Amino acid sequence: MGHLLKVDALYKSYGKEPVLEDFNMQADRGEIIGLVGENGAGKSTLLRIIATLNRPTDGEVYIDEQSYGKNYKKLRRKIGYVPQEIELWEELSVIENMRFFEKLSHENRSVPELKNLLSELHLEKYDTKVSRLSGGMKRKLNLAISLIHEPELLLLDEPTSGIDLKSRIEIGKFLKGLAGKGALIIYTSHDMTEIRELCDRTIFIGKDPFYKNILTDG
Ligand SMILES: Nc1ncnc2c1ncn2[C@@H]1O[C@H](COP(=O)(O)OP(=O)(O)OP(=O)(O)O)[C@@H](O)[C@H]1O
User: Fold this and answer.
1) Ligand 1 atom closest to 47 (CA)
2) 181-214: per-residue pLDDT in tens?
3) What is the rounded distance in angstroms from the CA atom of residue 4 to the CA atom of residue 30?
């Protein structure tokens, strides 16, 4: 069987200068991959293209050997995406947010199932209004929402930025568990210690060799 994800000769420009130029990668189920590069290197752009939220200028993305082309609506169901910015209903409670996004997803999940997912992430304040949660808890909730439809491919844009150490460790353990069950996780972070601890391999993106050197120097 082919790779779960294949990115082939991807090119993206917003203006004259390309952000991504002939970018290629393959990845398989069970991997945790760290995307590393300077600010503005194109990490979020790449994740958004893989998440079907942004279109490449040229090149193609495949999931299970099916190209995004005509299949992107179907393939989108296999993908979970957590953006850098937190996107939640502040005036609703934790469980109300989960129920809202469950209705938007293509899967039916019961309230006990949703609560179970929250508790796996150590987020048991089901009835607390989101506006009263800490930044770290909001990030966990965003992550839980992206997992409602049990995606095979999970794309995380700086999921632990601004998160305390305990939550960071909890999220790391949780992600390793997900990968152990066969999910592919692609992850951006500026924290090299975290990347080294969590990721099976790293992919350098961008022009600044500083990052490439950090990775190869060990
Ligand atoms: N919608 C857009 N329109 C125009 N330019 C954009 C757009 N989105 C991103 N860019 C530009 O593309 C480049 C790559 O941005 P991107 O957010 O993908 O980088 P990044 O590696 O995720 O950066 P960071 O580490 O700061 O999050 C930047 O120069 C950015 O200004």
Assistant:
1) 18
2) 999 999 999 888 888 899 999 999 988 878 777 7
3) 10
What ipTM score was computed for the predicted complex, to two decimals? 0.96
Best residue among 11, 16, 43, 210 to mutate for probing ligand 1's pocket (most ligand atoms within 8 Å of CB) is 43
- For ligand 1, atom 28, name the residue with the nearest CA: 40
| Beta-sheet pairing, 5-13 with 153-157 | unpaired
Average pLDDT over every residue of 76-96: 93
Structural domain containing residue 194: 5-17+27-217
Q: Determine, yes or no, domain membership for 48.
A: yes
* Binding-site residues, ligand 1, Cβ < 6 A: 14, 19, 37, 39-45
Distance CA 160, CA 165 (A): 9
SS3 44: helix
Q: What is the CATH number of the domain that holds 161?
A: 3.40.50.300
Per-residue pLDDT tens digits for 7-57 = 999 999 998 889 999 999 999 999 999 999 999 999 999 999 999 999 999
Whole-angstrom distance, CA of residue 211 vs CA of residue 167: 26
> What are the pLDDT digits (tens) for 140-154?
999 999 999 999 999
Query: Residue 135 carries which side chain, given as an amino acid letter?
Result: G
Query: Ligand 1: distance of its center to the CA of 169 in Å?
Result: 28
What is the domain count for the chain? 1
**Residue 22 included in any domain:** no
Residue 64 domain-assigned (yes or no): yes
Which atom of ligand 1 approaches the CA of 45 most closely? 18
